[in-house]
Amino acid sequence: MEKKERIPPGQSKTEDFPVLHVGDVPVFDPKTWIFSVEGLVENPVTVSFDEFRKIAPAESTSDFHCVTGWSRLDNRWEGLLFKDLCKLVKPLPEAKFVSVIAEGDYTTSLSMEEMLEDEVIFAWSLEGKPLEPDHGGPLRAVVPHKYAYKCAKWVRKLIFTAQKEPGYWETRGYSDSADPWKEERFD
Ligand SMILES: Nc1nc2c(c(=O)[nH]1)N[C@H]1C(S)=C(S)[C@@H](COP(=O)(O)O)O[C@H]1N2
Ligand SMILES: [Mo]
Description:
Largest sheet: 6 strands, mixed
Mean pLDDT: 97
Low-confidence stretches: none
Number of helices: 3
Bound molecules: the ligand Nc1nc2c(c(=O)[nH]1)N[C@H]1C(S)=C(S)[C@@H](COP(=O)(O)O)O[C@H]1N2, molybdenum atom
């Protein structure tokens, strides 16, 4: 189903894909790369990149809205849907938030409810090609119903928590709710 309006208020459509992040693009070494899930889950896991891709691969097409004002429509991601990851790690009832931890010092966090939206995916591929390092390869979070600072690139760890742990931009004046349709840009 398509929303009638595709571009949120104050955004404009871009056809290319700008690259935006703080710090350096990390080098991916499949021999040492691991993804782990910790905190309030019944079944914490640590997996290699190959293992991660075998859990429950899926596709999800969604729009991408950066708080600086550009939107990129119809991105076809392949990855692991958050809701499918939950079937494996089994969040405990006390788990109310998820901290998404990337390589470097970048973090963000979302509520369980926000993460359980259908389109939330940890993506390793875009438009049928391996995700480029600039765009978060080998693995990035995609949370299309939030501004893209919630879409951490180079994700390595999730921590399920009872309290919210505000992330990199959320502690620097950006909105924690970050809803592009309500223009929640700043705190
Ligand atoms: N690890 C990490 N992820 C990040 C960022 C970052 O600085 N570091 N920036 C965020 C912001 S503000 C945006 S707009 C998108 C940009 O993604 P892109 O470079 O693939 O367009 O990545 C998000 N994820
Ligand atoms: Mo952004």
